[in-house]
Structure to design on (195 residues):
């Protein structure tokens, strides 16, 4: 069980992907295992035709099913999340996010569409029965600076916001794991036989 970093950006290189990697590195530093899935890497025809017989599609859907938590990242395109992310979410079963924690993440060209995650993506995540959708993280292009040598630098304000989001996801995951352990211990109590 691990955290799935799900990127819905069609671009490469991608600002969203860089921010997502940054979040993944921070989660890894807190001891969490993470894996990455980029929707853009899936076979386009199989994605658009919802071809569940395609092995890559099957593996991607399984990766979601196996994750405890998902960081869903998207650029804002036309005031919403991307079409390829929707195409992928449409492949999931109706309760495809059941029991999972979800941290939504977006990058956009300006602050104008910073609510896109909350008015557009959040209802979809909730309809997929996510256990908890954490407070979204939104960064503008101006808050992210890329350097081929030093990598990604975040403005102070977004750096704090990212840290809060990472800490919240990590804490919620730890609570979830503790609860799962408690259930296991309770169920594992030896049955006392009456004499
Ligand atoms: C097709 C397209 C549509 C966009 N629409 C918006 C928009 O409506 N609002 C906004 O704030 N930024 C918009 N942007 C800017 C991107 O959200 C921003 O540059 C983002 O960081 C790109 O991330 P990426 O590198 O992962 O694609 C748009 C960019 C593209 C290419």
């Amino acid at each position: 069980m691990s955290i799935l970093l799900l990127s819905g950006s069609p671009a490469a290189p991608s600002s969203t992907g860089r921010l997502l990697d940054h979040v993944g590195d921070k989660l890894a530093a807190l001891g969490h295992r993470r894996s990455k899935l980029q929707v853009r890497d899936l076979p386009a025809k199989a994605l658009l035709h919802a071809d569940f017989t395609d092995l890559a599609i099957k593996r991607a859907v399984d990766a979601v099913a196996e994750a405890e938590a998902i960081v869903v990242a998207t650029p804002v395109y036309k005031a919403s999340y991307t079409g390829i992310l929707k195409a992928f979410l449409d492949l999931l079963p109706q309760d495809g996010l059941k029991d999972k924690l979800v941290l939504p993440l977006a990058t956009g060209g300006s602050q104008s569409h910073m609510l896109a995650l909350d008015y557009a993506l959040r209802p979809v995540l909730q309809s997929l029965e996510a256990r908890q959708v954490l407070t979204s993280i939104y960064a503008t292009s101006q808050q992210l600076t890329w350097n081929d040598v030093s990598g990604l630098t975040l403005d102070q304000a977004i750096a704090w916001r990212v840290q809060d989001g990472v800490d919240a996801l990590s804490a919620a995951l730890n609570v979830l794991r503790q609860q799962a352990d408690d259930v296991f211990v309770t169920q594992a109590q030896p049955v006392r036989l009456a004499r």
Remarks:
- The mean pLDDT is 95.
